[in-house]
Design a protein that fits this description.
two-stranded parallel ribbon, mainly alpha, 2 strands, about 180 residues
Length: about 180
């Protein structure tokens, strides 16, 4: 990461550098999420195809908006957002999405796992920002709330009448997809 030469008033450059690093991770996660959602949109099949196919595009658009917000916050803080595919692959700490052409419900099981990881990481960064930068924290809080609602849309397809999720005992995309089928 390049050294920050300026930042917003009232924020020390060292703090801004820490925040930019945290946001760069969120930028990668959100870029990956919107690409994963689009991948699932293209690869869903089966009797729930149209419902899931049409549900995913607005989610892609929402997450794409988050990507832009995070990148612009990095720039506002004096950083340089790195949104290249190479940087995403080099810096990510998670595996690539593992489901190809598959039943719509299987994709939703896997996407539930993906959303869980992104939301948990967002919440972790929100906690770190508590005293560091309330403006950036507020942005991530808003995004986390909207990501939770998007996950709810996914989970509604996986939920039984008793409130349990078909994939709730799984931790991997493959396991969740299998359980959801």
């Amino acid at each position: 990461m390049a050294t920050i030469r300026y930042t917003v008033p009232g924020l020390e450059r060292g703090d801004a550098e820490q925040i930019v690093g945290l946001l760069q991770n969120r930028l990668h996660a959100l870029n990956d999420l919107q690409l994963t959602l689009k991948h699932a949109h293209w690869n869903v099949v089966g009797p729930h195809f149209i419902a899931v196919h049409e549900m995913l595009d607005p989610q892609v658009d929402t997450v794409r908006g988050f990507v832009d917000d995070v990148a612009e916050r990095i720039a506002t803080l004096g950083g340089s957002p790195d949104g290249t595919p190479g940087a995403l692959v080099r810096d990510r700490t998670w595996d690539d999405y593992s489901i190809g052409r598959d039943d719509a419900i299987a994709h939703l099981g896997a996407l539930d796992v993906v959303y869980t990881g992104v939301i948990a990481d967002h919440r972790n960064q929100i906690e770190k920002l508590e005293t560091l930068d309330p403006v950036t924290q507020d942005m991530l809080i808003t995004q986390a709330g909207e990501l939770e609602q998007l996950q709810w849309f996914v989970r509604a397809h996986l939920e039984s009448s008793d409130g349990s999720l078909k994939s709730q005992s799984t931790r991997t995309e493959e396991g969740a997809a299998q359980a959801a089928r």
